[in-house]
């Protein structure tokens, strides 16, 4: 059963058709690369899945039940998490504090409840271990590499038992070593049965880690095929318009 299924999804802003009649499905534990030039409709599509926008037309289903979202918090309640390109982390806090930001654990009774730092450090440590990340719960975010910061942002999604994680350009502007670390984090999410949508301009990363690639151009889906049956040359042609539609 597909974890997420979109049928004839469209979105227009006045006369501007940002997404036009897109259908797709994503299986549990599948990594899907979402590619396309700027303005292709990728961000709008992802924002509809994340609850930022309502589709103008079409339906979304999650685990075979219709999904109607009015705001991002409702998407999170259904197990849809997004890791934004800017990560939205607090540099002055520890990794564990960032993981639990807005969802802090407390202990005690009534008005005498206090933050349960020990429990938060312990659970965050377990999540980092599951991700096979070297990030430690007590490390300050401001002292972390780009790869470690991604681990913190991904750990936050796992706290809420995500079923699908939307990742926006996670390997942009980081070193080669850190890119490898982030791609391993994505593989570990897949190994735990969590679906990942990887929005990226980096062709090698998509072909390294994704099971499938979806290409959008001018609001339409022009390719949806297994990585093994495509090539970087074909995807480049689809993005630029040199190839109209995937074979």
From TrEMBL:
GO molecular function: ATP binding; ATP hydrolysis activity
SUPFAM superfamilies: P-loop containing nucleoside triphosphate hydrolases (SSF52540)
The keyword Nuclease is annotated on this UniProt entry: no
This protein's record includes keyword rRNA-binding: no
Keywords: ATP-binding, Nucleotide-binding, Sugar transport, Transport
Domain ABC transporter: 4-243
Protein family membership: Belongs to the ABC transporter superfamily.
Identification of the protein by name: ABC-type sugar transport system, ATPase component
Organism: Mesorhizobium australicum (strain HAMBI 3006 / LMG 24608 / WSM2073)
Organism placement in taxonomy: Bacteria, Pseudomonadati, Pseudomonadota, Alphaproteobacteria, Hyphomicrobiales
């Amino acid at each position: 059963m597909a974890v997420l299924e979109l049928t004839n999804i469209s979105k227009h802003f006045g006369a501007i058709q940002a997404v036009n009649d897109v259908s797709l499905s994503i299986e549990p534990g599948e990594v899907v690369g979402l590619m396309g030039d700027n303005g292709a409709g990728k961000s709008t599509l992802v924002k509809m899945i994340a609850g930022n926008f309502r589709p103008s037309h079409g339906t979304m289903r999650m685990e075979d039940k219709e999904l109607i979202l009015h705001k991002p918090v409702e998407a999170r309640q259904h197990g849809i998490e997004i890791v934004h390109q800017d990560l939205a982390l607090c540099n002055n806090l520890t990794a564990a504090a960032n993981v639990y930001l807005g969802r802090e654990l407390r202990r005690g009774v009534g008005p005498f409840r206090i933050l349960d730092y020990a429990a938060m450090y312990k659970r965050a440590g377990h999540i980092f271990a599951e991700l096979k990340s070297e990030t430690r719960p007590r490390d300050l975010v401001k002292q972390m590499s780009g790869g470690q910061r991604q681990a913190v942002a991904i750990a936050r999604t796992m706290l809420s038992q995500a079923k699908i994680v939307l990742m926006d350009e996670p390997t942009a502007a980081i070193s080669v070593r850190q890119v490898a670390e982030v791609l391993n984090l994505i593989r570990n999410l897949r190994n735990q049965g969590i679906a990942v949508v990887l929005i990226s301009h980096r062709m090698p990363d998509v072909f390294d880690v994704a099971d499938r690639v979806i290409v959008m151009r001018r609001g339409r889906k022009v390719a949806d095929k297994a990585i093994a049956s495509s090539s970087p040359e074909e995807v480049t042609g689809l993005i630029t318009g040199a190839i109209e539609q995937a074979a």
